[in-house]
Amino acid sequence: MSNKAELIQKMLEMQKKFIEFEHSGAFKADDYYAPPAGHPLEGYVKEYNDIALQVNMMAHAEVGSHR
Predict the structure, then answer these.
(1) Do residues 66 and 57 make contact, with C-beta atoms less than 8 angstroms apart?
(2) Whole-angstrom distance, CA of residue 15 vs CA of residue 29
(3) Each residue's pLDDT expressed in tens, for the chain with a length of 67 residues
């Protein structure tokens, strides 16, 4: 599996865990944007966005649309 495919798989796993958490009834919007230390969503937004940016840059590099 390529590095890009691995990153996409990681994003999908993160989304699945987030959806499960959201459906559990324990989700609050504040927890998404500013989770307290030790919260299951701590670092989620930054990690997900970092991975998404990497995938985006890889896709641009593949087609030569980013300099």
Answers:
(1) yes
(2) 16
(3) 579 999 999 999 999 999 999 999 888 888 888 999 999 899 999 999 999 999 999 999 888 886 5
Q: How many domains does the chain have?
A: 1
As to burial, measured by CB atoms within 10 angstroms (0-12 exposed, 13-18 middle, 19+ buried), residue 11 is: middle
CA 14/CA 55 separation, integer angstroms:
15
Q: Which domain holds residue 12?
A: 3-63
